[in-house]
Write a structure and sequence with these properties.
The chain has 319 residues and is mainly α. The protein is built from 14 helices and no strands.
Length: 319
């Protein structure tokens, strides 16, 4: 048992170091930029196009903060303005798809998938869903009633306080990562060496096959669905190295998880905003399933065509 704990601890520390090297500098930089003219300038550039997705110009503030920081920053910005229920719902759906863009996409890219590919999917899903909801939903015109949410944002005087807050935020971010990843890796090491992961993968296999993936991708999907994309990336890295997850399956797993990750936390967090959260959950889940199955189908057709062409070419050369 001690040996399993030690091996799991080593794996957890290694993954924490790998991801921490990404999370710390990005968190520090973005937190500092929040107190400079950079983010306000970005907001000014985005505001004119808000009308295309049924939002007022002020909606650019939570979108920029939510995408550059996290969902909590986006929600804090939402409750600072008077939005309609429809606007809040659209913002919630968009932020569910594309929050914490820099960190989560960069961490996921450590698996070997392009940052631009991951970010492009997340932003595309956010825009397409917002336009669709705006066109199809005619209700939600009433004023949104927010619950008790703390929106306090301390005043910082001078660069020393800004740098200190940025450093503290980055340290806390890495510490939170370690508190989740290290115990998770220890548990995963125990389950792997005791054979429980094989049993679990077999139980989850029908779902992964439905999505077009092999059953050894199941733990990656479960980790991302439950604890999120950034934290689940630790398990993804281990899965690629130890479980033999193929490049194709990892791409499909990430396509699914960028659409639908941390489903419990990321859904419940929007309850105080007074919007229907069940449709929010269903939109993410259905989108993830349909998108992944579609990409898997197209990928399989392309692979089959390549194999046929290669077979024909081989037959021709042997004649």
């Amino acid at each position: 048992m001690a040996g399993i704990f030690k091996r799991g601890l080593q794996q957890g520390l290694q993954v924490t170091w790998t991801l921490g090297k990404v999370i710390f500098p990005i968190t520090l930089i973005v937190t500092i930029l929040q107190h400079t003219p950079v983010l306000p300038w970005v907001i000014d550039q985005i505001s004119p196009i808000m009308g295309l997705v049924g939002l007022s110009g002020e909606a650019a503030v939570p979108l920029v903060l939510g995408n550059s920081l996290n969902l909590y920053a986006g929600i804090a910005a939402i409750v600072s303005f008077d939005f309609t229920v429809k606007e809040v719902f659209i913002l919630a759906v968009m932020l569910s798809f594309s929050h914490n863009l820099f960190i989560e996409s960069t961490v996921a890219a450590r698996v070997g998938v392009s940052w631009w590919f991951i970010s492009g999917i997340r932003l595309s899903l956010a825009l397409i869903s917002a336009i669709t909801i705006n066109l199809l939903w005619s209700g939600g015109a009433e004023q949104a009633q927010y619950g008790l949410i703390s929106t306090s944002n301390p005043e910082l005087n001078g660069w020393s306080e800004i740098l200190l807050q940025g450093f503290q935020t980055a340290v806390v971010g890495v510490a939170q990562l370690a508190l989740i990843v290290i115990p998770l890796m220890i548990v995963m090491q125990y389950l792997r060496e005791k054979g429980w992961l094989t049993i679990f993968s077999n139980k989850f296999a029908p779902f992964t096959r439905m999505l077009g993936m092999e059953k050894n991708t199941s733990m990656t999907l479960v980790a991302g669905l439950t604890i999120g994309l950034a934290y689940g990336a630790g398990l993804m890295i281990q899965a690629v190295e130890e479980d033999g997850v193929s490049r194709r399956d990892m791409y499909l797993a990430l396509i699914f998880l960028v659409s639908c990750h941390a489903v419990v936390e990321d859904t419940l967090i929007f309850i105080p905003l007074g919007i229907p959260v069940l449709p929010l959950l269903l939109i993410r889940l259905v989108t993830a399933i349909l998108l992944t199955m579609t990409v898997a189908f197209i990928w399989r057709r392309i692979d089959n065509r390549k194999r046929k062409d290669a077979s024909h070419e081989h037959s021709y050369n042997t004649l």
